[in-house]
Amino acid sequence: MNESHYSETRQAPPRTGMYLGAAGAAGLLCAILAFASPQQFWPGYLVAVNFWMSISLGCLGIALIHAVTGGRWGYAIGRSLQAGIGALTVTFLLSWLTVIGAGYAFPWAASNRAELLNPNQMMYLDPLGVAIRYALFGASWIGLGFWLNKLYRREAADRTKFPPQRLAGVGIMVFFLTVSFAAIDFMMALSPSWASSIFPLIRMLNCAVSAMAVMILSRLIHTREPSHSQTALTHDLGNWLQAFNMLWTYLAFSQYILIWGADIPMEVEWYIARRTPLGMVTAISLFLFHFVVPFLLLLLRPLKKRTQTLSIVAAMLLFMCFVDIAWVSLPSYHGAGVMSGVAAVLSIVFIGGIWITAYSRQYAKLPDMIVEDPHAAHAHKAHAHDAVAAHPGETT
Hints:
This is Quinol:cytochrome c oxidoreductase quinone-binding subunit 2. The protein is built from 18 helices and no strands.
């Protein structure tokens, strides 16, 4: 029989001074680098924005999926998912700092944009139009997050109040469309002459992998002594992490095979730009540590049943998600160099300190959630009622 309650407890407001201090120090260094070498800094800052945004968007997408499907696994990480969604607002606001260095961060906003873009791209990637689109995307994400937070609190107080599945299905469609266009505008369009119809799906799965990795790490921090049912839930989360990562690998490899095999110059040049010595080492590292090693480790059931060991794989995948975003983004800039990588790391600390602070404070404000899936319990009771009605003279 499953235990009734999740093993987390509501916490007092966390001490986040260390994270804010690190963010402040990194922010100061970022400001110096942005002033001294904007051409190197802003590409790195965009990498960091995309990384932290991907975690919050991944939390939003997973929460929407759970609102449709249900399942104990979602209730086990519901509080962490809501905290990650709550941190989306601050990340969204920090992303607008790229407006300061838009000409350096986005090739389509540079002074020579007319030389890089065709007439259709000039219209679609008009800086004002992109800004309006992004504002609408952010409003939809924050609105969906607010709605999911309200549903979470209502269901935590009364488990008979189920999320409206049809509305959640509409939310998934909105999420899919907005994240797809955001991936095109802020990652794929960094190489204006290149396009891939599968690219937005790859970016969405990067969001899912990074978010699930953070959820597992959060369980390591917040979960008390694990019970038998908690072990089963940890195993479920390991399976989700494996599934998301395998889908990411399948789509990323399919994109490579299709483009490289077709040998169309305008498409192949995207991969050629990443065939530098550093780019090849990074690509091999992604293959080994974003797929091969995690895939083999996550086949081990004992590893997936222990939060401590599963967290090691989750931390590795979270780091490789950052490497993936950097590998996709930085080679698209002609002026990007080692200092762009340094800027990315500093910006990760700057945004990350603020993100973790927002996450921790949101987490402390949220109520606990019962792990047992109320949908399953409701279906079981209905089935038992039907059985009694069909055989009124029998006893169970």
